[in-house]
Amino acid sequence: MEFFSAYILVALCVLLFTVVYALYAVYAERKVSAFIQDRYGPMETGKYGLFQTIADITKLLQKENITPTAADKILFVAAPLIIFVSVFMGFAAMPFAPDIIGSAANIGVFYIIAVLAVEVVGILMAGWASGNKYALLGSMRSVAQIVSYEIPAGVAIVSVLMISQTLNLQEINLQQGILSAGTVEFLGFWDVSETGGLLAWNIFRAPHLLLAFLIYFIASLAECNRAPFDIPEAESELVAGFHVEYGGIRFGLIFLAEYAMMLLVSMLAAILFLGGWNTPLPNIGGLELANWTTGNIWGVFWLILKSFGLVLAQMWIRWTLPRLRVDQLMSFCWKVLIPAAFLCLFISGLWRLLVMN
User: Fold this and answer.
1) Better-predicted residue by pLDDT, 171 or 178
2) CA nearest 311: which of 256, 277, 261?
3) Contact between residue 128 and residue 218 where contact means Cβ atoms under 8 Å apart
4) Which is more confidently placed, 308 or 293?
5) Where are the transmembrane segments (predicted)?
C-alpha cells in the first residue's frame, strides 16, 4: 500500500509541475510573440504581467461546460480526458535524473510512442462527437497530419536506438555521460567515457544523428499541431479546429495537453540526442566539472534546461514562419522528411557495423 501511495505522490508531483509549466509557458509564448512583433505583451496583471495567465485560467475554469445538442454526449465528455491522459502517461517512463525515474522500463521508448498514439483517438473523437463540420474537418486533418509525421519521427528515433542498442531511456542517458559502464567514442575513434560533456552526446558520437535530431524536431512540431504545421487549428478556415465546441475545463484540458505534449517531445529529444540529464561540461585538466554537476538535482536541472530550450525554439518558430498549406505539409513529410529519415537509419546501420564494432 505504501509502495502504491508513493507512485500516486510522484504522479501528483509531475501533474502539478505540468500545470505550473503550462501556465507560464503560455505567458512565455505571449512574451516571445510580443518581442518578435515589437510590443510588450501582458503587463497589467502582476509585475510584468506574471499573473495574467493565472487570471485567464481562473476565468476559464469558472465558465459553464456546454454540450451541443447534436453532440454525442459521452464521447464529447471523454475526448478531452483521453487527449490529456495519453500525453500525461508519457511522463511515466521519463528519467529525470540518475535516481529519479517513474518506470525504468526496458521498452521505455516504445511505451512513449505507443501511448502518444492514443492522443490521435481522442482528437478524432473530439471532432466527430462535437456534431460540427468544422470540428470534424479539423480532427481529420489532425489525424492525417499526426499519423503521417509519426513515421519520420519514429524512424529518426530508431536511428538513435540502433546506435545505443537499447530501448531503455535511462541506459541511453548513461551512454552519453561519464557514468557509462562501457566505452563512449566521439566520432568512433576518441574515448570520451571519462571526459563526458558535449562530446559524449549522441549528435556528436555519430554526426548523422544531428540530421535525425532535426527530422525528429520538425516532425514533433507537426505532432504538437504547432506552426507552421497548425493546419488542424487554422482559425481562418476552421474557426478553432477540432476543439471549436469546447469551453471551460474541457477546453482547459485540451490546452494543457498541447503544452504538456510540447514538453514531453522536447524531453524525449533531449534524452535521445542531447545527453538527457548529463551536463554539457567536460572533465578538463583535472577540474572534473562533469563530476561536480552530475547528481539528481543537477540532473533534473540540465534535463529541464534543455527541454525548456527546445520548447522556446517551438515558440520562436510559431511566431516566425507562416502556416503551410495541406498539400505542402503532406508533400514535405512524404517527399523530404521520410526519405531523409530512412537515410539516417541506413547510415546508423553502417555506423554500427563499420565504426562502433
Assistant:
1) 171
2) 261
3) no
4) 308
5) 6-27, 74-97, 109-131, 143-164, 199-219, 253-277, 297-317, 329-351
pLDDT at 217: 96
pLDDT of residue 293: 59
User: pLDDT confidence of 155, banded at 50, 70, 90?
Assistant: very high
Q: What pTM does this model have? A: 0.92
pLDDT digits (tens, 9 = 90+) for 257-304: 999 999 999 999 999 999 999 888 877 655 555 555 567 888 899 999
Domain ranges for the chain, please list them. Answer: 1-62, 72-354
